[in-house]
Specification:
Number of strands: 2
Strand order of the largest sheet: 1-2
Oligomer: single chain
Structural class: mainly alpha
Number of helices: 9
Order of helices and strands: EHHHHHHHHEH
Largest sheet: 2 strands, parallel
Helix content: over 70%
Length: 230
């Protein structure tokens, strides 16, 4: 079977758009966010309620936290790379896109269980699709993925192991922030959906990558790969 050409730049574009839709659907479902975005979501929920801080949207919280990650990465690696800077650029346009989609898709009623489940499933599929597409591009992803991959290179540990540790740390941070901001025993952004995502995400992403590789031949449309490798 002849494969269709899928340009890596389009994989990046569609991947980020898919992630923004996925996070929005999961937020509207309100069964728990993925561990990666949970800390930013808790910060958004708390800070946006403070006087004069209504502008601190979920998207703003996302790229603010990712900026801190990029700075931490530069301190750990003791160097600056173009990919580090562009990772933050990715986070910013993803954040604006996330806020736009959040504005377009209204919140759901807590009683709409059926629709909330549909939204959660759709969000999970969009998120995993987005990650699988980003895996096929050379353009720097969001700081979350970049931080994990660079740390794995520095420590010599498997990326999967570093990713697992990072996700667990993110979940602990999100729970701690929930308790600090909203009271002990109150979970914001962390629920059964968070645990489910942690268990199944890796399998779904792996399956999607195999399907994409079976039907598409990912090639660069622009000669920018070496630029981002600096």
């Amino acid at each position: 079977m002849k494969k269709r050409v899928f340009y890596t730049e389009l994989a990046y574009l569609f991947g980020i758009i898919s992630l923004a839709f996925g996070v929005t659907f999961m937020e509207r479902a309100n069964f728990g966010m993925s561990m990666v975005v949970a800390p930013a979501y808790v910060l958004h929920r708390y800070i946006s309620l403070l006087p004069g801080m209504g502008w601190f949207t979920f998207g703003v919280a996302e790229y603010t936290l990712q900026l801190a990650l990029v700075i931490a990465l530069m301190l750990i690696m003791r160097k600056f790379r173009v990919s580090y800077l562009f990772s933050f650029v990715t986070a910013v346009w993803y954040g604006y896109l996330l806020d736009l989609i959040m504005w377009l898709i209204p919140p759901l009623s807590e009683d709409a269980w059926g629709l909330r489940i549909v939204f959660f499933i759709a969000g999970e599929l969009f998120c995993t699709l987005g990650v699988s597409l980003v895996f096929h591009t050379y353009i720097p992803p969001e700081a979350y993925e970049l931080f994990v991959s660079e740390l794995a290179k520095k420590t010599g540990k498997p990326t999967g192991t570093v990713k697992w540790i990072y996700d667990i740390c993110s979940c602990i941070v999100a729970v701690a922030l929930s308790f600090i901001f909203f009271g002990f025993g109150t979970f914001v952004g962390v629920n059964w959906g968070t645990a489910l995502c942690a268990v199944i995400n890796g399998f779904i992403i792996g399956w999607m990558c195999k399907v994409e590789d079976r039907y598409f031949d990912f090639k660069d449309g622009l000669k920018l790969r070496k630029f981002f490798e600096k």
